[in-house]
Design brief:
Two copies of one chain form a homodimer.
Chain A lengths: L3 H10 L6 E5 L7 E2 L3 E2 L9 E2 L3 E4 L9 E8 L13 E5 L11 E4 L3 E4 L2 E4 L9 E2 L10 E2 L3 E2 L2 H9 L4 E5 L3 E6 L4 E2 L10 E2 L2 H11 L3 E4 L7 H10 L5 E5 L9 H8 L3 E4 L4 E2 L5 E5 L2 E6 L3 H19 L10 E4 L11 E8 L5 E3 L8 H6 L2 E5 L11 E6 L2
Parallel strand pairs in A: 6-7, 15-18, 15-19, 16-17, 19-23, 21-25
Antiparallel strand pairs in A: 1-14, 2-13, 3-12, 4-11, 5-7, 5-8, 6-10, 9-10, 20-22, 22-23, 24-28, 25-26, 25-27, 27-28
Helix pairs in contact in A: 1-6, 3-6, 4-5
Pfam families (chains A, B): MoCF_biosynth (PF00994), MoeA_C (PF03454), MoeA_N (PF03453)
Keywords (chains A, B): Magnesium, Metal-binding, Molybdenum, Molybdenum cofactor biosynthesis, Transferase
Enzyme class (chains A, B): transferase
Chain lengths: 392, 392
């Protein structure tokens, strides 16, 4: 058996960034910026008014000063002339500051009479001018890799980036294996259950930025598994679920080996989770997850999520390990790293659920964290600080 | 001027849950469960083995006991007969426990010779049996409303729910207004800038579960605005950006009033944000956001996000207000509630950015939090606890 971190290192060796594609800006949110992009202009592209008011010369600004209004500057419609001594231009937020002016007296500080204005409230020192390029300058870059947020999308728009170079989405094929499985909506026989892992993993992996295909369930025969692998051809990552140790046989391993897979490892010292295998099959990375529903989902969080991030060109997520004080004591941990289904209390403590059987999807659905216990972790008291992964 | 919380109450009065649609399970992640759903079966559907081993009668389990193996039970293929005294059935994880047996001796505790097995390691008290219905029982429900996570999807699959009743996605039409705006990819004139708000808001609102259309930019004329409103017809929510106070005119308000909108309010005591308006236009709710890029995005977080949640049938998100100690002091706040662009430090403190101008998209893109300051909040020292909203 190997440790969780050794297994993760092996898995990450199987994948690499997938290259770049251009997508329209409106479809770039949640994608990973793959190349640095440079602003195509200054923002603002001109010195602009930050307020509604009157553009004047700063040297003339003082209480009771009077100006003649000679024109108007609105957003999209600047004032073409020049502001001279004793002159003002009516100006609105976002409009270009006219030549000759360098100060905007806000309209609340002014009394207007016809085309004359008087400063009737102390205007302060703030010129209310946004300098040209004050937000960003032509050529200023956003650095890749970067998971693009809504704010990033707004910024890319303002930079006039209509098409965005993003990492290609990993193509992941999910194969669940087992004679006991029936697809949701089917009618299970007396010894059968509904396939749930592929659906949960698809949702998880798509949320991380992958494109996921659920392949037909593979039966516990060589030919059925071979068919499933052939349908998965061309995927960046093939994930099998279950069957890694079916009874006395290791059907998935055998078929994968027949197809030329070099297996990297087999068993990982974790709960829930073992057995687990991985390797390469032609151009695809391949990972074999255990069939227990909770084990499969936890392995998805622990192993597949970092692989997806790596394929997207994102750095590993070490920093996502959080910590919180225990809300209830825990006994001694065994020899395997244990990812306990847990919940965060309102006052920020963490509490492991009583029932940790890896078959319990109801418990997983209530969990919002996986409490991490290293191998042989000693008994823990209330208030001790424990590491956890946040589930979303 | 009205307060942020008053404004939010008004806005929430404009919307209500939108009703339900059925979607295939594979498309239900991230949607909001709209009706309670009930499991269509017990899980497991039979008492099942939790381990690989041998199914026997618990009364016979003791060190050195010997059994004759009379058959095999695998997942999907139960054993049809009954386990009698002195008998055992080879069994694998997930297989039905055969009639007559109620205990699984794990294979590591057994020595096998032909069809005879002997218990050679103390088997302990755990029967390694998952009772029928131990995860969930037929008819057990998942309660609506609930934002469906990957784990929920796995659970729904196991319950054999192939189609899921979810809240219809809010249809949101975004109209940016202003003669100064050009779409990304266009060639702006000397007084023009690139429309960024609609792109950022689309990404944000789609991430919250809405379906968003960006309409053509409306020019600062009655006819152009009227055209835009006609294109938005049928939307659950129409959002205009900018133009709520264009110079001395309030074009959006005038045109909306012509079209029959009753305006609910106009100015909100917040930074960044005012002016802001809202009302109803036929069957649509309507919200008018300010045109400053950061103001529009912050108003999206503060006002539109709760509206989307309400249309999806989700409860308000009071609990999402977090708190953290200040990393740098803050001066006195003015009369308006201030949502300061801020960042969380590695050790969990919060630091507001120096530059809080509502035109700075570069600052917003670096922010991962909005630090919330109530009106007239006094000066704050390092270490004082401040409220914030997490930006994602």
């Amino acid at each position: 058996m190997i440790s969780v971190s050794e297994a993760r290192v092996h898995l990450l060796e199987l994948v690499s960034p997938l290259g770049t594609e251009l997508v329209p800006l409106a479809e770039a949110a949640g994608r990973v910026l793959a190349d640095d992009v440079a602003a195509r202009r200054d923002q603002p592209p001109f010195a602009a008014s930050a307020m509604d008011g009157y553009a004047v010369k700063s040297a003339e600004v003082e209480l009771h000063a009077m100006f003649k209004v000679i024109g108007e500057a609105a957003a999209g419609h600047g004032f073409d002339g020049t502001v001279g001594a004793g002159q003002a231009v009516r100006i609105f937020t976002g409009a270009p500051i006219p030549d000759g002016a360098d100060f905007v007296v806000i309209q609340e500080d002014v009394t207007a009479k016809g085309t004359l204005i008087t400063i009737t409230d102390a205007p302060g020192d703030n010129p209310n001018v946004r300098p040209r390029g004050g937000d960003f300058k032509n050529g200023q870059t956003i650095s890749a890799p970067r998971l693009l947020t809504p704010s990033d999308i707004a910024l890319l728009a303002a930079m006039n980036i209509a098409e965005v170079p993003v990492a290609r989405k990993p193509d992941i094929a999910l194969i669940s294996t087992g004679d006991e499985l029936v697809m949701p909506g089917g009618t299970p026989g007396p010894d059968q259950i509904i396939a749930s892992n592929t659906f949960g993993l698809k949702a998880m992996l798509e949320g991380l930025g992958a494109q996921v295909r659920i392949l037909p369930i593979a039966r516990d025969t060589h030919s059925s598994l071979r068919t499933a692998f052939s349908l998965a051809e061309g995927a960046d990552l093939i994930v099998t679920i279950g069957g890694a140790s079916v009874g006395d046989h290791d059907l998935v391993g055998e078929v994968a080996a027949d197809l030329g897979m070099e297996r990297s490892f087999y068993k990982v010292a974790m709960r829930p989770g073992k057995p687990l295998m991985a390797g390469r099959l032609d151009t695809s990375a391949m990972a074999g997850l255990p069939g227990n529903p909770v084990s499969a989902m936890v392995c998805g969080h622990i192993f597949l999520a970092p692989m997806v991030r790596a394929m997207l060109g994102l750095p590993p997520l070490q920093e996502v390990i959080l910590s919180a004080p225990l809300a209830a004591p825990l006994g001694q941990n065994g020899p395997r790293e244990h990812y306990m289904r847990a919940t965060l209390t309102e006052d920020g403590q963490i509490r492991a659920f009583e029932r940790q059987d890896s078959a319990l999807l109801t418990v997983l659905a209530e969990a919002d964290a996986l409490l991490i216990r290293p191998p042989h972790d000693p008994p823990r008291e209330i208030g001790e600080t424990m590491s956890y992964l946040r589930l979303i």
